[in-house]
From TrEMBL:
Residues 788-880 form the DYW domain. It comes from Escallonia rubra. One of its GO terms (biological process) is RNA modification. This is DYW domain-containing protein. InterPro entries: DYW_dom, E_motif, PPR_At4g14850-like_plant, PPR_rpt, TPR-like_helical_dom_sf.
DNA sequence: CTAGGGTTAG
């Protein structure tokens, strides 16, 4: 073969080599033929090796060519090293080249610039920029594109933009580099804006452009734009591109649009590991942990999980507490060496902590070679979540020796104060936080508002709130929740209106804080307003919102509206059914409650222990003894739920309310749990109605022995002794209460008239219209006496003379509220009264009489339930 | 194109 022909055929073989083996073969042939050192051939070889990810072969080929004086060869080797990420080596070669006095040309620079970008070497990057300008390459398209990318990676979008603006000619890469630069640095608006400009300037987008703009749509939750880009994907024919589809999936997850995710995923003809990771991770972040785990197992048929797969599914494991799967995945990670990755190990720490396994979390931590702040924070927070407070404090000391805590550390510590409800601990931390300056971090400020409220210090919570310079929706929600927790609804409502005045839109959490305040106050008008707001904001399909609405309406006296909300709800969870069953219970609709319970069972909702409290309570308030007992039995036998003390209390209540005192006592004596004050208290409240005073005294003794911290039970016992005239015992009980710093909850009632709430305490005398109210109550007394009413003095709680007792009875807060309400409303209007404690027997009787005398409906909500008084009767049928 | 620790509501 002639040398010329050999050269041509070998050059051809070199170009068409598709496997490293072929390349090596051609290379040896070239060497034996002695033509491997020609400029063109050696350059081809260097590039080819680089494409096959063998930069060392590229380099040795380069070194065989000597002396290397040709700029083309230098450009080739620099490009080869850059292509394989060996930026330092590439820059070293660039320096050598300059030392040898070989002038770089315009083909040299894109690689050199890429190296600076990859190394985040700002200094060299800027020097190269100046150099390029001096050499007059400013208008080169490729160099310009490289600079846009370099400055983007530096986060210097200003210079990226300058380069872009100065370019005399731009191609799609220029646009993509800039858009992707904006996008990856979180400048989403700018990314979208440039995308629009590229469209206006007639640029035809490609897959890269779509991929640059998708994160921006996702980040901004720009739904319309996202859909437009999705449309574009179909139009420009990149619908089959896996990477583009992965980008679409990721965007739709950020929109929270799981339907579209499903669609995209189902239509994908090719899926790769990233696809699976994206959906597994996406479902986890959307709270669909089971779905995420299911997809993981589905994926295993086709792909081996990589590090991202394992870490994504671990997130789901930690949420559902699947320690078994978590461990299996940990094993798998160990076999693949993934645990060497700091992030992966951090996720493991988190998983073990969330699954309640602090020891395993610690073991992961101890084995880590390289720990970061997140590792420390994860473990410390894990200790706190698992109530290992001492270990957390010890660990914090160790941590402080190695590195400085950041705001997340303080958040974890604040959650410790919250759990312990330790105000001193919280205040100490607050001082530390001020010293470190993290008090200006919004999340920390919010956590402080929360911790004070949870320690019961609304004052401090409000102070912290006022001191905050910036507030976000969470701040507002936290302070509203704080007011709710401390039952200061007035301040709570003031906060909601202030929030609205400052232009902050409520979200689901806001409304979930506000609705229970309406429930507490029976503020139906506000409640309805909020309902309107919910419809306007489109939250009506949110399950917790529906649940809160059911409760609000039921507590505001409108069972009808509760039922309406309930019927309109598309998804119902166990809380929904519980809310509805409790609502029926409060209105004495035991049969309806039982029916709802059956429907719930049919709907396949698994009952929890709380539903059983609601259903037992409903039976008890409707006198459905047999049905209630049946439910109690089913609870154990059919649903395998072990009854708790509150369920036993409900049964005691159920039996004793219906006068089955002996049965109730037998039941108590046979129960497997130690009866506490709530059990005996339930029995005692019922004895009071039955009038079996000796029985009551026996029960009272039990209660006093228990030394409960709830003053309510003492008051019950004290009443029994008072009615027996045993004043010594009464005094002993009172002293015992006082010594332990317990106080009887004062009774009060309130009534809303023309949007204003009037509150009355027992025996209040100093309010406007007191005279009129008193006169009206006296008139009622006379009229009632004529009908045969005798005051039941057992309900008076104090050690006083008979006459005075009668006075106190007349002064019970609910009577004051009723009389006041009657005086200030038109005849015939229904009245709605609220009381924080249970209505006493005498007031219950009196209210029946009043409803008949004045021919009005009087709705009274006491601590437990509703009583609708109408024409001398009460809806509770005297079961309360 | 895919991953980690943190605040409200539950």
């Amino acid at each position: 073969m002639r040398p010329g022909k050999l050269y041509t055929s070998l050059a051809k073989a070199l170009s068409s080599a598709t496997k490293p083996r072929d390349l090596h073969k051609v290379h040896s042939l070239l060497i034996t033929s002695g033509i491997d050192q020609s400029v063109f051939i050696s350059g081809k070889l260097i590039t080819k090796y680089a494409q096959f990810r063998d930069p060392h072969a590229s380099l040795s080929t380069f070194h065989r060519v000597s002396p290397t004086t040709n700029v083309y060869q230098w450009n080739t080797i620099i490009r080869a090293m850059t292509h394989n990420g060996l930026y330092n080596d590439a820059l070293g070669l660039y320096t050598q080249m300059k030392i040898l006095n070989i002038q770089p040309d315009r083909y040299t620079f894109p690689s050199v610039i890429n190296c600076c970008a990859g190394l985040l070497n700002f200094e060299t990057g800027r020097l190269v920029h100046d150099h390029v300008m001096e050499m007059g390459f400013a208008s080169d398209l490729y160099i310009g594109n490289s600079f846009i990318d370099m400055f983007s990676r530096f986060g210097d979008l200003g210079n990226s933009r300058n380069v872009f603006d100065e370019m005399p000619r731009r191609d799609v890469v220029s646009w993509n580099s800039l858009i992707s630069g904006y996008s990856s640095n979180g400048y989403w608006e700018e990314a979208l804006e440039m995308f629009h400009q590229s469209r206006v300037s007639g640029m035809v987008p490609d897959a890269f452009m779509v991929l640059s703009v998708l994160p921006a749509c996702g980040g901004l939750v720009a739904v319309e734009e996202g859909q437009m880009v999705h449309g574009l994907v179909e139009k420009i024919g990149i619908k089959a591109d896996v990477v583009v589809n992965n980008g679409l999936l990721s965007m739709y997850f950020k929109f929270g649009n799981l339907t579209s995710c499903h669609l995209v995923f189902d239509e994908m003809a090719f899926r790769d590991t990233v696809t699976w990771n994206t959906v597994i991770c996406g479902y986890s972040h959307s709270g669909l942990y089971e779905e995420s785990i299911k997809l993981f197992f589905e994926m295993l048929y086709k792909f081996n999980p990589d590090m991202l797969t394992t870490t994504s599914v671990l997130l789901a494991c930690s949420h559902v507490g699947d320690l078994k799967l978590g461990r299996d995945i940990h094993d798998f990670m160990m076999r693949n060496g993934y645990q060497c990755d700091t992030t992966a190990s951090n996720i493991l720490i988190n998983m073990y902590s969330k699954c309640g396994h602090s020891l395993a979390a610690r073991a992961v931590f101890d084995l880590m070679k390289c720990r970061d702040l997140v590792s420390w924070n994860s473990l410390i927070h894990g200790y706190i979540q698992n109530e290992r407070f001492e270990e957390a404090i010890d660990f914090l000391k160790t941590m402080k020796m190695e590195l400085k805590p950041d705001f997340v550390t303080y958040m974890a510590l604040l959650s410790m104060s919250t759990q312990l409800m330790n105000i001193l601990h919280a205040k100490e931390l607050h001082c530390d936080i001020i010293k470190t300056g993290y008090d200006s971090t919004l999340a920390v400020g919010n956590a402080l508002v929360d911790v004070y409220a949870k320690c019961g210090k609304l004052e401090d919570s409000l102070n912290q709130f006022e001191n905050m310079k910036t507030r976000d929706i969470v701040t507002w929600n936290t302070i509203i929740a704080a007011c709710l927790r401390c039952k200061d609804c007035e301040t709570g409502f003031r906060m909601t209106s202030q929030m609205r005045m400052e232009g902050m839109l409520p979200d689901v959490a806001t409304l979930l804080g506000t609705l229970p305040m309406c429930s507490l106050l029976a503020a139906k008008r506000q409640g309805k307003e909020i309902h309107g707001c919910i419809l306007k904001l489109g939250f009506e399909l949110d399950v917790p919102i529906g649940n809160a609405l059911i409760e609000m309406y039921s507590k505001c006296g409108s069972l009808k509206n509760s039922v309406l909300v309930f019927k309109h709800m598309k998804t119902k969870d166990v809380v929904t059914w519980t809310a509805m069953i409790s609502a029926y219970g409060m209105y004495g609709e035991g049969r309806e409650a039982l029916k709802a319970f059956e429907e719930m069972d049919t709907a396949g909702i698994v009952p929890d222990h709380i539903v059983f409290v609601a259903i037992l309570y409903a039976c008890s308030h409707s006198g459905l003894v047999k049905e209630g007992q049946l439910c109690f039995d089913q609870m154990k036998k059919k649903y395998n739920i072990e009854p708790r003390i509150e369920h036993y209390a409900c049964v005691v209540d159920l039996l004793s309310r219906s006068g089955l005192l002996a049965e109730a006592e037998d039941f108590i004596l046979s129960m497997p749990l130690k009866p506490d004050a709530s059990i005996w208290g339930a029995l005692l409240s019922a004895c009071r109605a039955s009038g079996d005073i000796n029985f009551a005294e026996r029960v009272s003794e039990r209660i006093v022995e228990l030394k409960s911290y709830d003053p309510g039970y003492y008051v019950l016992a004290s009443n029994v002794y008072a009615s027996l005239g045993k004043w010594d015992q009464v005094r002993t009980i009172r002293k015992s209460l006082k010594d332990r710093g317990l106080r009887k909850t004062p009774g009060y009632s309130w009534v809303e008239i023309r949007n204003k709430i009037y509150t009355f305490g027992t025996g209040d005398r100093f309010f406007e219209q007191y005279e009129d109210v008193n006169k009206l109550l006296e008139t009622f007394s006379d009229l009632m006496a004529r009908e045969g009413y005798v005051a039941n003095l057992k309900c008076a709680l104090h050690d006083v003379e008979e006459d005075e007792k009668r006075d106190t009875l007349c002064g019970h807060s609910e009577r004051l509220a009723i009389a006041f309400g009657l005086l200030n409303t038109k005849p015939g209007t229904p009245l709605q009264i609220l009381k924080n404690l249970r209505v006493c027997g005498d007031c219950h009787t009196v209210t029946k009489y009043i409803s008949k005398i004045v021919q009005r409906e009087i709705l009274v909500r006491d601590a437990n339930r509703f009583h609708l008084f109408k024409d001398g009767k009460c809806s509770c049928g005297d079961h309360w």
